[in-house]
Amino acid sequence: MRILTGAFPKIEGGCVVAMGTFDGVHLGHRAVISRAVEIARDMSCPSCVWCFDIPPRVLFTGENVELITTHKEKSALISSLGVDIVARISPTKELLSMSPDEFLEALFDALSPAHIVTGFNFTFGAGARGNVDTLTAYASRSGVGTTTIGSVTAADGKTVSSTLIRETLRRGEVSLCRAYLGRNFTVEPTYKNGRAYLPDRVAVPPKGKYEALVYFSGGKGNSSEIITVSDDGEVNVNPERLTAAKPEKIEFLRRIPD
Length: 258
Description:
Blueprint: E1 2-5, E2 15-20, H1 27-43, E3 47-52, H2 57-61, H3 71-80, E4 85-89, H4 93-96, H5 100-111, E5 113-119, H6 132-141, E6 145-149, H7 162-170, H8 174-181, E7 185-187, E8 190-192, E9 195-197, E10 208-216, E11 222-229, E12 235-236, H9 239-242, E13 247-256
Parallel strand pairs: 1-4, 2-3, 2-5, 3-4, 5-6
Antiparallel strand pairs: 7-13, 8-9, 10-11, 10-13, 11-12
């Protein structure tokens, strides 16, 4: 999978584009991306995911939105869905100030889309004035098809969204997150003075005890462990295992009641 940067990277020969922020690559996102991959295969052209690396509202509101996935994990998850190209976009005031028509003109000139797939709530352009109806009308005039994927409902009846997942993580309900993500919530710990910590600027569970699948460095395998997360985000794992290897990935399975 190729990773491109810049607001409108040039893709020669056209592609089928899935557009969104896709933070978390949750079940709703997977529906959008997977449909784009299917259409691209039917049309015998590359599939491309055009995505913001952070939620655009952060630029204007200054809101501290914690990401569900790091850029590295997000790229890996998108790649696992069979995508050929990722256009990873850093939102700028110039980009977000473009009118919907200006935005689409630049997008179509750069990507030459053969088809575009979005979620039902996709917006773009200054003031988020562009939506799926705006996109469909513009694309139709250019002879380009569009597909809109509706909301995805989890088993508990809730509409899957990145906001819902962040709120669920903050409550420590990691087993419920699995129902929204379609996989276990996973982090790669960072190390300070030899101690493991949950990563910064990423949504993480609060202080408490958790059952987790811990992957150890050096090819030492993985095992189900009871880990403890402290107030400052330090992760404590079975000290007997730590004598041989460090945790390099942690999949949270469930919270253990106090």
